[in-house]
């Protein structure tokens, strides 16, 4: 005996023909949905850019077990405004948004005050204490936990006509491996500092 099937007015022959026609379209839709995404990657929701900031792509460098990515930059900022004060730069403010990801098993440190903005003429500038304080940017040594992801702004006061070239990151090259920790060693071949292009 043939099993009972509900066809809702569609003859089985036509129904299977329609399914055969839809199969390539369904395969294309599934391929497009998965294209460019790895099962080992997060899908991060898009983040709104601060006003007048330029997003940067592919500007990543590693120091030991931590990756550093410059994800945004804004130049020629005429003033920094906070909840309690505002301040005008000597030249221009430059704000760089830095994303850190700790891929190691141990905590790692970063001192924002030791980072440098490099201009086209090769001059290195330290962060502006005034702008960092007024904008409520990180102060003091920052500790990033194992597997943590963190983004924050660095503010610099550079000459008005200066062109930015790179962010020089001085990070923590230490290793999570027990043998390296016992001898105080860094991750093998770790380069520190590294320059991340902003152009």
Write a brief structural summary:
Helix content is 18%, strand content 33%. With 199 residues, the chain is an alpha+beta fold. The strands form 4 sheets. Strands 1, 2, 3, 6 and 11 form a 5-stranded antiparallel sheet that branches.
List keywords for this structure.
single chain, 199 residues, 3 helices, alpha+beta, 33% strand
Task: Describe the protein's architecture and organization.
The structure is a single chain. The chain has helices spanning 12-34, 129-134, 178-183, and strands spanning 54-55, 60-63, 66-77, 80-81, 86-87, 92-102, 108-110, 116-119, 124-125, 142-144, 149-158, 164-169, 194-197. It is α+β, with helices and mostly antiparallel strands and 199 residues long. Strands 1, 2, 3, 6 and 11 form a 5-stranded antiparallel sheet that branches. It has a 4-stranded antiparallel sheet with strand order 9-8-12-13, with no helix packed on it. A hairpin with a 4-residue loop joins β4 and β5 (86-87). The longest helix is centred in the first third of the chain and has 23 residues, at 12-34. The model is unreliable at 1-12 and 18-34 (pLDDT under 50).
């Amino acid at each position: 005996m043939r099993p009972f099937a509900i066809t809702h007015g569609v003859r089985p022959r036509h129904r299977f023909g329609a399914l055969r026609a839809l199969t390539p379209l369904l395969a294309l839709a599934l391929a497009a949905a998965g294209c460019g995404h790895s099962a080992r990657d997060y899908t991060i929701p898009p983040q709104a850019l601060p006003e007048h900031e330029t997003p940067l792509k592919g500007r990543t460098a590693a120091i030991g077990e931590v990756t550093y990515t410059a994800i945004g930059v804004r130049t020629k900022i005429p003033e920094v405004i906070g909840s309690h004060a505002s301040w005008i730069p000597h030249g221009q403010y430059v704000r760089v948004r830095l994303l850190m990801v700790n891929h190691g098993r141990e905590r790692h440190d970063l001192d924002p005050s030791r980072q440098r903005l490099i201009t086209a003429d090769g001059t290195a500038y330290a962060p502006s204490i005034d702008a960092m304080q007024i904008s409520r940017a990180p102060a003091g040594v920052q500790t990033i936990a194992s597997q943590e992801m963190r983004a924050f702004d660095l503010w610099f006061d550079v000459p008005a006509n200066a062109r930015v070239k790179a962010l020089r990151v001085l990070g923590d090259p230490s290793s999570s491996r027990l043998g390296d920790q016992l001898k105080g060693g860094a991750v093998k071949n770790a380069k520190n500092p590294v320059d991340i292009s902003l152009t």
